[in-house]
Give the backbone structure.
Amino acid sequence: MSTLTTPEPLTKKYITPGVIILAILAFNGIAFVLARLFFGIGAVTNLSDQYPWGLWIGVDVAAGVALAAGGFTSAALGHVMHREDYHAIVRPALLTAMLGYTFVALGVMIDIGRWYYIWHPLLMWNGNSALFEVGICVIIYMTVLYIEFLPIVTERFMGRVQLKGILSILNRPLESLLRTLDRTLSKTMFLFIIAGIVLSTLHQSSLGTLMIIAGPKIHPLWQTPVLPLLFLLSAVAVGFPMVIFESLLASRSFGLKPEMHILSKLGTMVAPLLGIYLAFKLGDMVIRETFVYLLEPTTESVMFILEVALGVVLPLRMFLSRAVVRSPLWLFVASMLVILGVLLNRINNFIVAYTPPYATGGYFPSVGEISVTVGFVALLVLVYRFLVKVFPIISVEQRHTSPVTKYSIRGTAK
Amino acid sequence: METRRDFLRTAVVAAATATLGEVALGAASKIPSPDRRGILCDLTACIGCRSCEAACRKEHGLSSVSSLSELGRSNVPERRRPSPDALTVVNEYKHPNGAGSPTFVKVQCMHCDYPACESACIVGAISKKESGPVLWDTDKCIGCRYCMVACPFQIPSFQYDTALKPDIVKCDFCVHRTEKGGVPACVEICPVEALTYGRRSALIEIARKRIENYPDRYRDHVYGEFEAGGTSYLYLAKTDFKELEFPSLKREPMPGTSESIQHGIFAYFVPPISLYSLLGGLMWINKNRQKAEEETTE
Ligand code: SF4
Ligand code: SF4
Ligand code: SF4
């Protein structure tokens, strides 16, 4: 690698016009969350006995988990494959996954009727339930993500604990706590990293098992016993596009040079992963002969074609082109298409494909549901922006260091 | 179409069962007690008086509507389903050629032998009791509504308008009465004995006999005998059950496929642990290779 980059807290100012818009959206969402807490789910959503699950489960939870897959795919690449050159993406991906799962948990909490019982699955087990497995894995994985993040905290504060006044007596103990933590973690971290990957494969696939028990309520275009595999493959395929998308967005927003040398290499890995997913998806369709449903002009068939054509086939073709992979703009567009494709797939699986046997109407998310979903996304971006200013997460090119220091750093690194 | 999907599903289940043996079958293999009770609902006898609806509401202290006259018979919206203030409802289905008399269908939880809701519930709040009923436990339920997603009959209802402690509401087979040797409120009130409570196996015999004795009156189909692995509520009718909007379900229990997958993934934790070791090994190899490379380049 020619350029030397290290993760650093960013110094750009927090408030921008964009941040203000996000803050407004976040407040709007929080207002509806409060309404839900005080007046019940019925007051803010269009959910009913016919449609018990809607936007919050389909997007906040199912799509949220899939789009946080960048965390485990880049951990696999950076740590298991031990590719040092990708280390610059591991931290941002870790932070996104950590925040992503935190907001998935928040999404679940407002969607379930008795949010204060969210801990019940820890004690009350039902091994037959796919939802139980998703729940348990998500809880453990979220803990693992927070543990994986700890070294970044110790790195930031070790040797810099300077509490003022009466709290200053805490300085010494805090400092030694950080040091012990740092030492133990650096020896045991690999255990957590591997656990994170295993947990991810488990619950990414079990999310696909969720709708299998709904049997004939799910449109045959999506209902298949290989759903768990399709969910896992699509999560793996969307991991790197998500990392690329965020990295390009962050470097633009913070005025940094896009790290194209890493992102292009990541981009070349997307096509094969998307290809495998597409092969299984189409193979399943051929075996079950569900293509006959594509000839019927229904919402389902249109949505299925959109999902596959725009969200898989088109970006697959794009990622195969060298020109696309090298251009920040086209790489951004192609990554966004993959992300939209997976988002659409989860919406289709959980909402579009679901037809209750005694339907008397359809389901479309209410203003409240949309506000909460949008608000959570806005809040996530705001917290991300805050954390990259506090912690060394995003790699910054060492422009101001002299060549001498560069050499000395390189020399000691080996 | 159907047959191919059938085949695939059976193939997957069979493969999982074969490789994993006993563990592959969870609740779906739990044999229900031969003694379990059920209710036979003879739709050819029901006159649609809705007394059972009223009696049920009264029994469970639901809504103020408790007298028959208040409920009325007119203006019944189509496709009514049980709700937080009615655990059972009676719907009217017009005769196909308009002239004949309509059929009334009493709707409530079917108390499945292999309940999808039980298999799905994240915390195991729903359970099939030995005596037949499928019951919900308020102390466990977290309100996730996955049971509603899973139920093939669209039965569990949720209190969407309750902010703090919403319940899942469904027919409870009047366990508080049957435990003491009584019969469910709806069975007791029915003026024409359209409802019969008893041992499920005996009810099937009764149903078969009725079909045999009055072949003109009944269609040769006891709905619930085999559907979704069997249900505790059984129905007799003159018309095709499809016309009365009974879902066409296969004989396999609803939870079969998903449970096989779940148990396949978790068979004695072997797959997750293998994956863990595999990744650990890979990590170790790659790290060492990197070290070796570094040493040679230096
Ligand atoms: S009818 Fe539905 S709610 Fe009742 S036992 Fe069967 S699956 Fe459960
Ligand atoms: S809503 Fe309650 S009973 Fe239904 S699946 Fe969730 S926890 Fe179980
Ligand atoms: S009480 Fe009997 S006759 Fe009246 S609606 Fe109910 S099942 Fe039918």
Q: What stands out?
A: The beta strands of chain A are 5-8, 394-397. Residues 51-396 of chain A form a domain with the Formate dehydrogenase/DMSO reductase fold fold (CATH 1.20.1630.10). Chain A touches chain B through 73 residues (CB under 8 Å).
